[in-house]
Amino acid sequence: MTTDLYTNFSKRDYTATFERLLDILSKEVPELTDRNHSDAGISLIRLLARQSDLLNFYADKIFSEGFLETAKMRQSVIDLATLVDCKLKLASPASCTIKVSKKPDYRSNGSSPREVTIEQYSVFSRTDGVAYINLDPITMDINTDDVIFSIYQLEMHKIQIGPGDFEYIYPYKRLRYNLGANVVRDFIYVYEPVADIYWQYVDSFYRSLPNDKHFTLELYAEKYNGENDTVFLSVGDGLYGTDVIPNVLEVTFFTTSGSAGNCGTDVITTPPHSTLLTCTNITGATGGAGVESTEDFRARVPQLVRTQRRAVVESDYDALIRSIEGVADCEAVSRSSNISWPYMYVFIYVLPNGGGDISNYLRQKIRKVCKSWGHMGDWDDRYVILDPIVNTVDIKLRVGKKEEINEYALRTKILTVLNKFFLPENRKLGKGLNIGEIHKAVGNIAEIDWLEVLNPSSSYDRIPGHTYVLGKVDIEYVS
């Protein structure tokens, strides 16, 4: 989107400014008729026109940064959204359910069964080194051979900070401390040991009193200490939340690898106490994602503002739940749109980042938002959180290729395009599937002269909660 929606630079560029200055010169000093570029006066006018061109250009740029639709800088979009209390989604961890079993040789020690304790924050790994942890300690008593619980793709960090570690980042007026990149919002604890209290996380300071020990997390998009998209721990300003930092604050926070944590079942196979235990994830790890993109955030802000922090109709639920870290897409359905659904229920299909089914961790987050802002209030059973209905689509193509093109190389390009087309983030829930879009995506490959989509033979209609994944791909080449 260009800034021409709000500004018109055509009459303030170098040429227009130079001609306007010459016209003023002719009126003010008519006896000065020399217009040669080597003349000292004309040289000064040309320099002034050049500088005016430059200043007008930057004035337009600055002006455009004041509007959500035209802002180019990521930090500008974040700051504009802050005015209406909307926050960009931070990184989210993948989560799954794991089954841990005692090894046969260690289920008993002679005639005595053995107890095994899996400490809090123990590490479970994939063969590629991506690590997951449990948030609560697990005890397998003498009569327990197997246990099932949730794990999260997180890395824990513990630091101690004091007043000298906080700073003001221009032009922001609250004290901040840089935690680095890929910080997870849901898992951060700020403890003041002298007072023996935990500071409280808030989304906004607008209800905080001057002495309230509140903090929040804010993403800073500009480069800071060599990194982009770093997360700052921010405290109040003395009017909204305290700005008095104790000598020691103990901060425990977690970072994540985002989408790299998403995986299928039976992939996480290395447990702690590997001589005693075996493990495998019995559900896929889903919900992992990096920091939200600027364009996704820009599109989401107006939707979220319209909800006024409450959910009544389906679009309200969609906007609120899409704002949850780990959610790629959402589609709410109720009786108001289809009388076949039960009365006084809200059915919510949720597509997590990475696709697949919703993890228990993400399901709990969604229920919490619904109970806080949904029109059913704390009526928990009336919010039905549903996994997406995944349909596998087999593709069959007849491709007219240029004679000199290698079929194997062309197939690789076609598969690359189709895989991108069917990525979870590109397949919105309930969108349907248009074969014309498949034809357009594949047909844009330069090495293809013509293309027929033989399967699917027709488009799929929009059905609530349905999404599509790529299945088998058959390609018939015609030279």
Explain what the structure shows.
By secondary structure, the protein is of the alpha+beta class. It folds into five domains: 3-64, no CATH class; 95-154 and 259-281; 156-255, no CATH class; 294-385, GMP Synthetase, Chain A, domain 3 (2-Layer Sandwich); 389-478, no CATH class. 23% of the residues lie in helices and 30% in strands. The protein is built from eight helices and 25 strands. The strands form eight sheets. A five-stranded mixed beta sheet has the order 10-11-16-15-14, with no helix packed on it. The chain has a four-stranded antiparallel beta sheet with strand order 9-17-12-13, with no helix packed on it. The chain has a three-stranded antiparallel beta sheet with strand order 8-1-19. A hairpin with a 4-residue loop joins strand 5 and strand 6. Mean pLDDT is 90; it is low at 1-6.
Query: Any idea how many domains?
Result: 5
Q: Uncertain segments of ≥5 residues (pLDDT<50)?
A: 1-6
For the record, give the distance between the C-alpha atoms at the N and C termini, rounded to a whole number: 41 Å
Shape: globular
- Provide the structure class: alpha+beta
DSSP strand count:
25
Portion in beta strands: 25-35%
Rg to the nearest angstrom? 29 Å
Main β-sheet description: 5 strands, mixed
**Widest β-sheet, arrangement of strands:** 10-11-16-15-14
Mean pLDDT: 90
Name the helicity range. 10-25%
Number of helices, where a helix is a run of at least 4 consecutive DSSP H or I residues:
8
